[in-house]
Structures are given as C-alpha cells and as structure tokens.
Amino acid sequence: MKIREETSRDIDVIRSITRAAFISVEHSNQTESAIIDALRESGALSISLVAVESNEVVGHVAFSPITIEGGRQGWLGLGPISVRPDKQKEGIGAALIEEGLRRASAMNAKGCVVLGDPNYYSRFGFEADSELFLDGVPAEYFMRRAFEENMPHGRVDYHKSFNTK
Ligand SMILES: CC(C)(COP(=O)(O)OP(=O)(O)OC[C@H]1O[C@@H](n2cnc3c(N)ncnc32)[C@H](O)[C@@H]1OP(=O)(O)O)[C@@H](O)C(=O)NCCC(=O)NCCS
C-alpha cells in the first residue's frame, strides 16, 4: 500500500469512497464528499492524501486550516477521512493519519485537531483539551495534537466549506 498526494484523476474515486464509508455512520449527514469538493475549490485542502493498493485508491484523508478565536494560528483540522468499507481495519486509516500528520508537521503546521472517537484518535497522540473547544461538541470527542510546546486556547472553527449542505 502506498500513500501519495491526490491528483485530479482521483477526485471521482475520493467522492465515491467517502460516500460509501460514511453511509453507515450514525452521526453523519452525508455531506462529507461535498465538503472535500468545497475545500478543494476554495484552495483550503492543505493536505489531501490517497492510499493506493494494486493501483486502486482505497482510502483518503483531508486536512484543512482552522481558526482559533477567529485567527489563523497555523493549525490544521484532520478530516474527513475514509477507507473503502471492504478495506477497513487493515491499518489504512492509521497509515493515512500518520503520513498526514508527518506532512503537516513538515509544512510547519503548529498542530492539528480532530473530531471523532477518542478510542481511535488517542493512538495517534490526540487528546482532549477543555481549553481548545468546538462549540456544541462534547469535549471528549474534540482532540488536539500540538507539534510544538505553545498551546493555543479558545474556540475553534473549521473552514467555511464544512457548512456545505
Ligand atoms: C475511521 C476509518 C477511516 C478508519 O480506517 P481503518 O483503515 O478502518 O482503520 P485502521 O485499520 O487504521 O484501524 C482499525 C482500528 O481502529 C478502530 N476503529 C476504526 N474506526 C473507528 C472509529 N470510528 N471509532 C473507534 N474505533 C475505530 C477499529 O476498531 C480497529 O481497532 P483495533 O486496531 O483495536 O482492532 C474507517 O473505519 C472509515 O472510513 N470509517 C467510516 C468513515 C468515518 O467514520 N470516518 C471518521 C469520522 S471521525
């Protein structure tokens, strides 16, 4: 399995994998593939990686800039992330996250946040911080991983593309 940056030829398959992966996710409103398209159109897809197995794209992860207390502080948000349903639980999601975090840090991002299951994301060094929060979300599901010592505090907002319906 290989991880590489997306190209324009991957766009359709990223859409279909994202739709297929989220279709059975209870808390999803099925807007994830439209969000990825909107991020791309806005130039806000800071990192977009695909996992490729036998020349087939089997997973995707997006990272985009967030604001903290209304300002860009060099932090990114991880997601949406999806792995083709028949390829889940083989480590592809973990490989996408680890490579994405490595690239984010190499791009001098200061840290990354994620909204999701703490049981999954804690294994990548993410942890909840009551002082870095997303409105309307239980604190334990919103986590951060800093790439440097300085820890920002306040309200986080994702890119406006996340309001796509
Ligand atoms: C979440 C997702 C990207 C993980 O990718 P993956 O390739 O299946 O994950 P990995 O193989 O790296 O890791 C599998 C492990 O994570 C666990 N896991 C996977 N998704 C999880 C989730 N949403 N919550 C908690 N644990 C999860 C599995 O139970 C497994 O645990 P184990 O290692 O103890 O056996 C994939 O399951 C997926 O596309 N899910 C549907 C879309 C989705 O929910 N995206 C994330 C929204 S926050």
CATH architecture: 3-Layer(aba) Sandwich
Largest sheet properties = 9 strands, mixed
| C-alpha-based Rg, rounded | 15 Å
What is the SS-derived class? Answer: alpha+beta
Reading off the top of the CATH hierarchy, the class is best stated as: Alpha Beta
- What characteristic shape results from the CA principal axes? globular
The name of the CATH superfamily reads Gcn5-related N-acetyltransferase (GNAT)
Enter the CATH topology name.
Aminopeptidase
If you average the pLDDT, what whole number results? Answer: 97
Number of helices: 4
Q: Say which molecules are bound, naming each kind only once.
A: coenzyme A
Overall structural domain count? 1
Compute the number of strand runs. 9
Low-pLDDT stretches are none
Proportion of residues in extended strands: 25-35%
Task: Summarize the helix and strand pattern as letters.
Answer: EHHEEEHEHEEEE
Query: Termini, distance in Å?
Result: 33 Å
Helix proportion range: 10-25%
Explained architecture:
The protein is α+β, with helices and mostly antiparallel strands. The chain has one domain: Gcn5-related N-acetyltransferase (GNAT) (Aminopeptidase, 3-Layer(aba) Sandwich), CATH 3.40.630.30. Helix content is 25%, strand content 33%. Strands 1, 2, 3, 4, 5, 6, 7, 8 and 9 form a nine-stranded mixed beta sheet that branches. Helix 1 packs antiparallel against helix 2 (32-41). The radius of gyration is 15 Å and the shape is globular. The mean pLDDT is 97. The protein binds coenzyme A. Residues 21-22, 25, 79, 81-83, 88-94, 116-117, 119-120 line the site of coenzyme A (COA).
